[in-house]
Amino acid sequence: MFKLVQQWYTQYFSNQEALILLLFLLASFALVLTMGVPLAPVLTAIVLAYLLQGLVNALMGKGMPRVPAIAVSYTLFLGMLSVFLFILVPLTWGQFLGLLKEQVPMMINEANNLLVKLPEQYPDLVSKEWVAEITALTTSAVTGVAETVLTFSLSNIPNLMGVLVFIVLVPLLVFFFLKDKDIMIGWFTGMLPKDRPFIHRVTQEMDQQISNYVRGKAVEILVVGTATYIGLAVFGVNYSALLGLLVGLSVVIPYIGAAVVTVPVALVGYFQFGWGTEYLWVMVVYGIIQGIDGNILVPLLFSEAVNLHPVAIITAVLLFGGLWGIWGVFFAIPLATLVKAVISAWPRLDPPLEEVGE
């Protein structure tokens, strides 16, 4: 038994590069798992700088020097951040508060009216006690959420200060990550073996596939969210900006996101228009946007991305989402891609032929 374990270890873990990469990945995983909250500005800035580096490379490929390319990319980033903070956030937050104060109570009353009729229609399946319990539970839960969101007191100021510090730190860190990228990478690679073909192969494959995915996903969020907002606003759907934001963010979660976000779109449309022609057109437009996203936009953006099985994608979303919340959900596929790249490129030392024959 010991000899079998020794042979297995020699076959898969005799490569120094592989062990170094494995230890680095485990250390990074432990660091993010234990220190993810205080390091959130740094991690966020790394991701944003990684996204902007694609634009920097594209501008440099057009003949622009590196410093002007960084300046243009960073200016564009600050402009988009300003639009997000001063236009999109106030607009969607106002619509969210309006949804809680106006639409949600009406939805609850309508649902309660339907539930009350169930014991009369299906007396053998639904009891009045069960309906009363569900009604009370739903009303209590929604009321609690509404009170929490609508009530802003001095106790929220520390959290607000943390958000302000986050907003100030992230753009500053993004600038330094873009400006001093080569210095930081050189410092890190200086601690690695000079001859590192395995690490180079894994990082090259990972960079190509993950960059395609992350940058493509950012474009998909922007396109789908904007198209949904315009499509719903044309028909005068209430809370169209909020729904557009939700639909845009839903593309982060493959398969599950589109199904879940359809519920609020359908409910808002139904309670505004009822079972009418306008409601039908709203759902048709929404369905067309989802169809274009799944059949045209996704193949166009992710044609070079790694092909993961749906089971692997869902498992990764559940696993990393459970560990790191929304960030884990967003990076579930890149992390799964990293695992696949490491496993595919992992070196193995084949045992001697005489040992195999035995």
Could you characterize the architecture of this molecule?
- The protein is an all-alpha fold and 358 residues long.
- The chain has two domains: 37-186, no CATH class; 198-347.
- It has 14 helices and no strands.
- Helix 9 packs antiparallel against helix 10 (256-273).
- The longest helix has 56 residues, at 66-121.
Key words describing this protein structure:
358 residues; mainly alpha; 2 domains; globular; disordered C terminus
Topology:
Blueprint lengths: L1 H12 L2 H20 L4 H22 L4 H56 L6 H23 L6 H23 L1 H9 L7 H38 L5 H11 L5 H18 L3 H25 L8 H21 L1 H14 L7 H5 L1
Helix pairs in contact: 3-4, 3-6, 4-5, 4-6, 4-9, 8-9, 8-11, 8-13, 9-10, 10-11, 12-13
Question: What's the order of the H and E elements?
Answer: HHHHHHHHHHHHHH
Largest pleated sheet: none
Structural class: mainly alpha
Q: Total helix count? A: 14
Strand content: under 5%
Q: Brief description of this entry?
A:
The chain has helices spanning 2-13, 16-35, 40-61, 66-121, 128-150, 157-179, 181-189, 197-234, 240-250, 256-273, 277-301, 310-330, 332-345, 353-357. The chain has 358 residues and is an all-alpha fold. The chain has 2 domains: 37-186, no CATH class; 198-347.
